[in-house]
Amino acid sequence: MTRNLALTEQINNVATDFGEIIGRSSPMMTVMKQVEMVAHSNSTVLILGETGTGKELIARAIHNLSGR
Q1: 61/32 Cα distance (integer angstroms)
Q2: Are the CB atoms for 33 and 27 separated by under 8 Å?
Q3: Which residues neighbour 61 within 8 Å (Cβ) at sequence distance 6 or greater?
Q4: What does pLDDT average to over the chain?
Q5: What is the pLDDT of residues 1-37, one digit of tens each?
């Protein structure tokens, strides 16, 4: 029961940080780590991808996590 509550809290924290991004697969977790890394840098970011892949969601997550 305690482990379940801890996992639920962890999921809620990730959901809060990344807005509407709901993917929890290994590749998406890699993307989210990259988003966190670039959000805390002073780098310019170019997001590329096919239509409907969530580029705007990634951009919004970077913006929300950054201090800029």
Answers
A1: 9
A2: no
A3: 17, 18, 19, 21, 32, 35, 39
A4: 85
A5: 787 877 777 666 655 567 788 888 899 889 999 999 9
Q: Rounded to the nearest 10 degrees, how much is the dihedral formed by the CA atoms of 17, 19, 21, 25?
A: 20
Percent of the chain scoring above 70 in pLDDT: 87
For residue 63, the one-letter residue type is H
Specify the number of domains making up the chain. Answer: 1
Q: What is the token pair recorded at 49?
A: 């991808």
Supply angle C-alpha 54, 17, 67, rounded to 5. 100
Residue 49 has pLDDT above 90, yes or no: yes
Which domain covers residue 45, as residue numbers? 2-65
Would you tell me how many other CB atoms lie within 10 Å of the CB of residue 61? 21
